[in-house]
């Protein structure tokens, strides 16, 4: 298994994380998740492996998050996942998957917790 980054090229943290992976001498599989989002079960698995709640994995800084009413604490995991599947921009990024684990790399330095040496 190599390194996979779920990447948004418009995001500076995502670009910084990708650059750090490459500087470490690794060429990752880059998944531009806005074009090719993970399926629901893959996303659910990545969230669990990263030790996050579904709410922590949702990008609450996107205006769409509030527009859809997802900032309401009564909105549950399944509704959040539904929204993330319908609108991949709501998936927080970048998520990096390696044989050492999965991390939401915010800040980008979290990458070093899972980057193979």
UniProtKB/TrEMBL annotation:
<dbReference type="GO" id="GO:0008794">
    <property type="term" value="F:arsenate reductase (glutaredoxin) activity"/>
</dbReference>
<keyword id="KW-0560">Oxidoreductase</keyword>
<dbReference type="GO" id="GO:0046685">
    <property type="term" value="P:response to arsenic-containing substance"/>
</dbReference>
<comment type="similarity">
    <text>Belongs to the ArsC family.</text>
</comment>
<dbReference type="InterPro" id="IPR036249">
    <property type="entry name" value="Thioredoxin-like_sf"/>
</dbReference>
<keyword id="KW-0059">Arsenical resistance</keyword>
<dbReference type="Pfam" id="PF03960">
    <property type="entry name" value="ArsC"/>
</dbReference>
<protein>
    <recommendedName>
        <fullName>Arsenate reductase</fullName>
        <ecNumber>1.20.4.1</ecNumber>
    </recommendedName>
</protein>
<dbReference type="InterPro" id="IPR006659">
    <property type="entry name" value="Arsenate_reductase"/>
</dbReference>
<dbReference type="InterPro" id="IPR006660">
    <property type="entry name" value="Arsenate_reductase-like"/>
</dbReference>
